Amino acid sequence: TTTTDLTYTPLPNGRCRIANASIAAEGTRNLVVTLIGSYASQGGTGSSAGDGSSNCGIPANVAALAVSARVVPALAAGVSGVFKVYEYGSTASEGNTIRFAGSLAAGSDMIVKSCQPSCAYEIAVYSTQATSYVLDVIGYFMQPAPIELECVSTANGVTSVAAGATANMTAPACSA
After folding, report:
1. Are the C-beta atoms of 135 and 68 separated by less than 8 Å?
2. Most buried residue among 42, 43, 90, 103 by CB atoms closer than 10 A?
3. Is the pLDDT of residue 156 over 80?
């Protein structure tokens, strides 16, 4: 099926930094992952080469993304918050959660469903408190691609039969 029979592909250059930015308390930000010329508008640098000029080999309409997320809050001691990464178009409550406190960094690797097909954005982030965040895509999941069947001729046979007569012929063996 297109939702459960997915194939995972790691990125060819290891990881792709799609975002490195800050978000306000109770803030939401929508992020583009595919079909983008540069991640610079999201604070991303792209592939490990760091030029931000390509989509790092992530094709359009991926079903889900393998994401490494880190947050560095700017909070006073004892203050805590929640950072969510989720599918664009859904609610933050459905997202993957990173809990953070004080000025301690926190992170998690997660699988995030991607909005498809051809959405304006693929994922979104939300935070209950002001924080800085970094998102790296490390791979993606795609729907199965249908494969055309191939026909192989194994042999041909010709038998002449006179009018009113009968004949038998054995079919050639199939190679597979």
Report:
1. yes
2. 42
3. no
